[in-house]
Amino acid sequence: MSLLDLAAYQRDGFAVLEGFLPLSDCDALQERAAELVAALDVDAARRIFSPRDQGHARDRYFLESGAAVRFFFEEEATDQPARLALNKIGHALHDLDPVFDRISRRSRLADLAHVLGLVRPLLLQSMYLFKQPWIGAEVGWHQDAAYLHTRPSTVIGFWIALDDADRDNGCLMALPGGHRGPLRQRFLRDGDRAVLRTLDAAPWPNVEPVALEARRGTLVILHGLLPHASAPNRSSRPRHAYAVHLIDGRADYPADNWLQRPDLPLRGFP
Ligand code: FE2
Fold this sequence. Notes:
The protein is of the alpha+beta class. Helices cover 21% and strands 25% of the residues. The chain is globular, with a radius of gyration of 18 Å. It binds fe (ii) ion.
């Protein structure tokens, strides 16, 4: 297993730790996700995403997902079975599902959170990302702190490859050092809608993007202000990944963040 080079992380805004998660844990997460999908009421879930809906049910479904386990479909999905049509499951798997809870709170992740400077780490959000063969959508350039904002900014992403991720199937891309720039946007709750607001129109830094290719079991650590993206998956191979985002409980958590959990207090590591 590769160890964290903290100086390189602070310079680049990301770190790639190969062989971090045991393959047995990768198996367990993929098997559990498959069980959750098999138990899904597909018709009810798909109805929320049907074009006939005016977006209200979809917004509500999304806004409530911070304290739930919800299923989101790919835009390009047509008649595929759900296991090949889902974009992601989110956003409280780490608290509501025992398998995701156990693996998200491995002591090695707790140790890393501490090394990365989180004094009171809280697990805020989790996502099972499918990046399906052929239809897995692009994720545009963004900073995770736009979606998971604290003052000061403390969010850190732990992204774990559950399949080999490379340029062909839409691995992560990053702008090295870009975490030293400003926060550009915030994704806010505005009544019962979610809106993306621009804070700073500064362009992304003019540096060559790097592909963060990751074999199965690799952990990619992403600084919350690091601009990153991923290309669509046009290959025949899946690119499953599991992402957990942490914040420091000492920071202020704004009441207008989209993700609110009034009835499900955030938890850290055991
Ligand atoms: Fe992200």
